[in-house]
Amino acid sequence: MLKTAKLSKPHFATLCFESVPIMQAMNAESTQHDEYALRTAQFFDSMGSDYENAFAHDACLNNFIKKVLTMFPPASSVLDVGCGTGTPVSKTVAAQGHKVTGIDIAPKMVELSRKAVPNATFEVADMLEYVPKQKMDVVLNILSLFVLSRKEMETMSKKWAEWLLPNGLLCICMFAAEDCNPTKDMYDEDGLCARGMPHMFMGQQDLLTMLTRQGWEKMLEDAGFKIVDTEVDLFEPPAGAKSDPEPHYFIIARRLS
Ligand SMILES: C[S@@+](CC[C@H](N)C(=O)[O-])C[C@H]1O[C@@H](n2cnc3c(N)ncnc32)[C@H](O)[C@@H]1O
């Protein structure tokens, strides 16, 4: 609540953060949480529908959504976390008769989602603080974990378990560290996460923090999930998007009863 009120004040919208790569800044474990939320919201608000124009036509993502839809119970309650503009994910899922709630930290993204998917519910919220009104059949976190630190990803894994009904479905799209060309020195001591991997996203050079495949497996198992399917697919954003190719790592996991 506090965060939403802060973000809606006009003077926050004029703050400038261009000099610091967003993901680099946000991946520092010591980052102040309010600053993180504000910068993330501003970064994605500044993009608005440009993001959708560049990324919504990703055939692999659209195929993944089609695949997971076959695993949803009829009329599922679905939470789309970091919903962006609502297209293609919330829109495709809602069109199949599921009850979609989308959250995003960026108010402009939520506004675009509301317009694009009028038969779903959207709200401005930080996933790290959000508490759903009901337990969900399905949680989707599609390309929305990039600015989280390793510790925050672990926090999210516990939240997914709290938010889902027993046997509920968790669908994630991220990158796995080993697909981002890390050097040996970029790995954490336990070898399950790598940091500082350069990546260009929408014209901005960032440094990524990513779990390895084994890191994902361990984190999700520790949180009470069983991975049922994974796949990797390289998405080539259009030239105008000023973004590096993205090795999308898709994970489908079930919350154990
Ligand atoms: C790369 S976009 C992906 C959007 C959408 N899931 C899709 O695949 O089209 C990432 C989205 O996650 C949102 N986001 C990032 N951090 C967030 C957080 N802590 N809480 C909620 N949303 C967040 C951003 O505002 C942005 O809209």
From TrEMBL:
Pathway as given in its UniProt record: Phospholipid metabolism; phosphatidylcholine biosynthesis; Lipid metabolism
Pfam family for this entry, one: Methyltransf_25
InterPro entries linked to this entry: Methyltransf_25, SAM-dependent_MTases_sf
UniProt superkingdom: Eukaryota
CDD domains per record: AdoMet_MTases
KW Methyltransferase (keyword) present: yes
Catalytic activity: phosphoethanolamine + S-adenosyl-L-methionine = N-methylethanolamine phosphate + S-adenosyl-L-homocysteine + H(+); N,N-dimethylethanolamine phosphate + S-adenosyl-L-methionine = phosphocholine + S-adenosyl-L-homocysteine + H(+); N-methylethanolamine phosphate + S-adenosyl-L-methionine = N,N-dimethylethanolamine phosphate + S-adenosyl-L-homocysteine + H(+)
E.C. number: 2.1.1.103
Keyword Transferase: yes
UniProt keyword list: Methyltransferase, Transferase
Annotated ranges, domain Methyltransferase: 78-168
Protein name: phosphoethanolamine N-methyltransferase
Organism: Stereocaulon virgatum
Organism classification: Eukaryota, Fungi, Dikarya, Ascomycota, Pezizomycotina
